[in-house]
Amino acid sequence: MILEAMKMQNEIQAPLSGTVTAINCKPGDSIEANSPLVVILPEENKTE
Fold this sequence. Notes:
Layout: E1 2-5, E2 8-11, E3 18-23, E4 38-42
Antiparallel strand pairs: 1-2, 3-4
């Protein structure tokens, strides 16, 4: 994910592997500190 702050683009990497199940923001939104941007279902919890 790329987050723009103060005209700089910052790459954010997830702390775990999995599937993104929800995105809690859209382009142009202002984001507060510590706000969850996405919800990730960890790989070990996936049913296949």
